[in-house]
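Changelog-adjacent note: as of this version, every example in the card shows the full chain rather than a window. The one below runs 200 residues end to end.
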Amino acid sequence: MPSVKLFRFISHKPRRFLLAVLALSFGAALVAFLFPEQMLAMDSGEVQADVIVVLGGGLGERPIRAAELFKSGAAPEIIVSGGGDAEDNRRLLERNGVPAASIAVEPKSKSTRQNANFCIPMLRKLGARRVIIVTSWYHSRRALQCFRHYAPDIRFFSRPSYFGYPGTAESWQRKALKNYIRAEYLKLPGYWVCYGVCPF
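Full-length structure tokens:
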């Protein structure tokens, strides 16, 4: 039987099996770190929605991206989410041409999971059925999957900022982004194990 053969292979040749597992793990890690844009960035392309949710964090690029989408007609309302910088991001939106009446603020969340959990009731109150998530490109996979996990009844899309994207980033941006990218590779499996948020 195949299962018996596999057991014998594992039990009689543990070093070979362990080396194969290590080689596969190393290969996957190498691909992930060499090509973070393919692994982390998720972009739904041009879509129309009811609301844009712009997440806190980043270096000011997220509200600028959300303002671009708003002015292009992608959605008529914006929710700014994130404790600590929600008000700063609201002001950035206004400076970039978004009317104050079109902006709602969620100022309490401290994590991507809380961004989702605190924004979803606001989205339901607005009757939103289609929502664009705006964050940085390296954070877009976890953010999108987190919102989808907690509100499967709402359609979520990702339109990230590409500030510091590989191939376009300046040297200081690349250095700053390395830590964010490393953190994402830890947080993706962490969210899957702890909260059931599948990254795929």
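Structural remarks: The beta strands are 51-55, 77-81, 103-106, 130-134, 155-158.
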